[in-house]
Amino acid sequence: MKIAIIGSGNIGSNLSRCWVKSGHEVTIGSRNPASTRVKELIGSIDGPIDAKHPRDACVNADIVVLAVPWGAIDDSLSNFCDLSGKILIDVNNPVDTKKMELIFDGHDSGAEYIARRVPNLRVVKAFNTVASELIGSSKIKGVDVSVPIACDNQDDLKLVMELVRETGLDPINAGPLNKSRLLEALAMLIICFSRGDYGRNIGFKLLR
Ligand SMILES: NC(=O)c1ccc[n+]([C@@H]2O[C@H](COP(=O)([O-])OP(=O)(O)OC[C@H]3O[C@@H](n4cnc5c(N)ncnc54)[C@H](OP(=O)(O)O)[C@@H]3O)[C@@H](O)[C@H]2O)c1
User: What are phi and psi of 170, to 5 degrees?
Assistant: First the structure.
């Protein structure tokens, strides 16, 4: 598949590595595609990967991943090409970093906000509950961490479940997109654990 990953940071770079390895064509959408940092990232990945401005990165993509700080979401969405009909994987956590609180209350979520902003976008919430280091790298004590996925379309769910498996993680169906409210709250709880006694090498597992 052709995957555009907007944001060349922690999450964007690790997802790129995994998916190029599994045979996908990845285009990183970066504000500075010619920067040394982005060139080094691309140079470190062996396979079909390049970098373009976000507007151009999405044009031929089957799937777009949005992996930018929450404060940059509006800017990012207004700079994209026409995304209608595309799948967008939303990995973002809408956190007010000064207060360390979720921006949306329990009746809304970042994923639903993005879906409202872009008509006909097929938004899938995934990866927001895992630390970027866990993507493609390691299990915790031999256990693959779970990645709950929320979306409204069963075909999109199946596809993103497979993409999650390709990162070495354990996909689980969390239900429709409005369950993103719970996924974002779960991420907030994991962030609190990380910043408290437990560090970043932690994850959530649905035992079944
Ligand atoms: N880090 C984690 O463990 C983790 C886990 C789960 C979810 N998340 C979520 O995933 C999203 C990305 O997190 P991350 O850790 O990958 O962030 P990051 O390392 O800071 O990278 C974000 C990337 O977004 C791009 N960007 C676009 N507009 C920006 C702006 N105004 N300011 C700064 N960067 C901008 C930048 O790429 P260019 O410079 O190339 O444009 C930057 O490298 C966040 O919403 C976060 O809540 C993170």
Answer: -110, 105
For the chain, how are helix, strand and coil distributed in percent, rounded to 5? 40, 20, 40
Contact 94, 117 (CB under 8 A): no
DSSP code of residue 145? P
C-alpha of residue 208 to centroid of ligand 1, in Å: 32
* Residue from 5, 11, 18 whose mutation best tests the ligand 1 pocket (most atoms within 8 A of CB): 11
Q: What is the average pLDDT value for the chain, to the nearest integer?
A: 96
Sign of dihedral through CA atoms 159, 43, 137, 112? negative
Q: Residue 88 forms beta bridges with which residues?
A: 64, 123
Provide the residue type at 47 as one letter. Answer: G
pTM, two decimals, is 0.98
CA distance 127 to 171: 9
Q: From the CA of 55, how far away is ligand 1's center (Å)? A: 17
22 Cα to the center of ligand 1, angstroms: 23
Residue 138 pLDDT exceeds 90: no
Could you give the domains of the chain?
2-198 (3.40.50.720)
For the stretch 69-103, pLDDT in tens is 999 999 999 988 889 899 999 999 999 999 999 99
DSSP state of 134: G
Ligand 1 atom nearest 10 alpha carbon: 16
Q: Decide if pLDDT at 32 tops 80.
A: yes
Ligand 1 atom at shortest distance from the alpha carbon of 95: 47
